[in-house]
Amino acid sequence: MKKLILLFPLLVLFLSCKKDIDSQKKENKTDVDTTNITFKNDSIALVELTKKLLQWAEKDSEGDFNPLENKSTESAYSEIDMALHKKRLKELKNTNLFSKDFIANYDKIALKIDSEFKNGTLKWNVGELPPFGFGASPWCNCQDFPNDFLTKTKIKDLEINNNKASYDWGFGPDDVYSIKAVKENDVWKISYMQGFDYNGYVSSFQQSNDFTGKWQNGMVSLNIGDTSLAFEYHGQCVYFYPIRKISDTEFEMIWSNEMDCKFDNGTSETFGLKEVPQIGKPFSKITLRNNVLHVQYYYKDWVAKYSDQITDVFTSEYSKVEEDLE
Prior knowledge:
Helix content: 25-40%
Number of strands: 16
Organism: Flavobacterium artemisiae
Distance between the termini: 120 Å
Protein name: DUF4348 domain-containing protein
Order of helices and strands: HEEHHEHEEEEHEEEEEEEEHE
């Protein structure tokens, strides 16, 4: 009897510990299940968000980054239509599909396009395709929405971390379109789309402001490459000068005496001046604006004296020679 009395407290202690362990396991299991349920709910919400995005994009008829026609020429667009753009930003916000970051990035792209129009880097003729973008809708990376596209829309490689998500989606197994989303006020919204990646969009610009090619004034033609410039007086007289690129629209011309010419063009004259062009040193800075080369000469007095003797060689501007005019 004494043995039973001694064993009873041990049995109670054992059962109590087992209950605590079972309770702890149950709590842990509940935590895991909650995490799985949350992930599942978020994944469902993101699928629905993507489908709503595509439904909206499929019906959208406003277009992106609409241009304003140049009234002076009526043949080319000169800037982004900012009234339409502001209306577009408001529309994107009202869909409740896009985060603040996405809308800010969209606005940044529009302002960049507008800037490139105004400085002449982009040229968009009326009736032609835009000189930016990827040839497909940036909303779906497609030309047209396929039939039953909502049932075909699948997401994969979903990652969720601290109310931020990234994933790929497509209409088929080979389609890969990257998207990011973020929770704003506990609602999932699109924060990034591959089709509106800022750097990617800017790199798509078909720049008309490329200083390479052929340019001319009244006397000479300039044939400009990536590393050199040729002053061509005619087929039997060419002077060659190295160039130092500063940017996509600006470079320096370096003085040289390299030539293939049967006559002296007079560039070795000093005209009694102390400050004259030096071989191997910059002679001028040339900037491309609005499809015209604008020249800043470092030896202004020498250029003035030279121009008194031979006109229309070192001028302040050179115009592009279009291929169909050659």
